[in-house]
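Following up on my earlier thread - several people asked me to post the actual chain instead of describing it. Fair enough. Here it is, all 270 residues.
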Amino acid sequence: MHGRLLAVSDLHVAYQENRDITAGLRPTAPGDWLIVAGDVGERVADVEWALGLLSERFAKVVWVPGNHELWTHPDDPVTLRGEERYRRLVGICRDLGVVTPEDPYPVWRGEGGPVTVAPLFVLYDYSFRMPGVATKEESLRLAHEAGVVCTDEFFLHPDPHGSRDAWCRERVARTEQRLAAVDPAYPTVLVNHWPLVRQPTDILRYPEFAQWCGTTLTADWHRRFRAAAVVYGHLHIPRVTWYDGVRFTEVSIGYPREWKRRPPREPLRT
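Reply from S.P.:
Thanks for posting it. Predicted structure:
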């Protein structure tokens, strides 16, 4: 069946304007797949609503969690934390037929294929630090002094892991094993909410925020695992960049105050 491999992230459907955008997302052809690279929303019910709607419209939906899905937000009646919260979301996705990082990686055979689409969940470990900053503790201290502190520090609980960076290391080790076992006959499309390399964070207005944006442990994955493309979100800076000849596409919608300042564009990226 003909179609395109499309992508979007950072839908943030708690905002009515973004909810309206999400409600308007439709395939361009019956065979279109949709990658959703995290930050659908904070409430479990909102995530289920959005992914349920999209899974009814697209031939296949592939989802990875962002930090907002992992928050235990005081406005959400679902009070699960950390790993349990993530597992609840995976269960919801499976009920909807949505592919998650815990499922077999599907092979896209439409336009630009065949490629193995690999949804990843590897978090961050505070290693995207500013030059000259040697430790996580120093990096966090400088961020607090600058007043630039990610809300994850209050809402994203790593239970049962001892810290978010410990959870990240566990996810990296598990994901490396899975990627190493992917059939080398096909290139990959690597999908993660956070960028897999540090360079996209260099243009952040507040460099202190980069420490919540990824891990240096994935810096060579686009080369090691034969990536034809890397899809990510989180930064709310939609653009295309190239590293080692590999296309990296940031596919976020972002908050209304952000996208309203930009020239109009199609919300779905190829």
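Residues 5-259 form a domain with the Purple Acid Phosphatase; chain A, domain 2 fold (CATH 3.60.21.10). That should answer part of your original question.
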